[in-house]
């Protein structure tokens, strides 16, 4: 963040005040921009090749795909000059792809684990034989549907915020995870229906889960 802010502020000073003090053939702005980019890219590469936590991977990819090329290089003061320099990406394509795969693997595993834990909690609630909550006079088991939908949606949004391609790949992966979760949910529900007929709130629990169907659709 400090490096990006410094680069943006210094290059703005070069455009506004320093560039016109030199003959055009000196290419003063290009010299500054290329040197800053070279240093920034070397630091990004160094970070990418070190051990990164999940949040660090996301932040670095955000810099590579969004913050650096869009927020910085499309700045209204710098855009025209930077367009002439053609600086390229902060990371080599191969290293960027490696980070993207790591991010996608982690995100997919995290969402899959969250859905599994959520279903376990829901099953536990059924076993406690408590009356489900009502919404607008109808039994609901909305916590499960809301949590699952939000988890999938939030994951897709985070990935798309990195890049459209990363978002599409995560959507493709989650398009397999969600049906797998729904099958587990259905199997658990069928098991509950068979084994829990003597529960006091058996029917309300059935109704609450049936009412989940519209949310999942």
Describe the structure.
With 217 residues, the protein is mainly α. The chain has 2 domains: 1-90, no CATH class; 96-216, no CATH class. It contains 9 helices and 2 strands, in the order αααααββαααα. The chain has helices at 2-18, 28-48, 54-72, 79-85, 93-127, 142-162, 164-195, 202-210, 212-216; strands spanning 134-135, 138-139. The protein has a two-stranded antiparallel sheet with strand order 1-2. The protein is elongated, with a radius of gyration of 26 Å. The mean pLDDT is 91.
Features of this protein?
EXOC3/Sec6; SNARE binding; two-stranded antiparallel ribbon; 217 residues; mainly alpha; 2 strands
Structural topology:
Elements: H1 2-18, H2 28-48, H3 54-72, H4 79-85, H5 93-127, E1 134-135, E2 138-139, H6 142-162, H7 164-195, H8 202-210, H9 212-216
Antiparallel strand pairs: 1-2
Protein name: TNAP2 protein
Organism: Syrrhaptes paradoxus (Pallas's sandgrouse)
GO molecular function, one term: SNARE binding
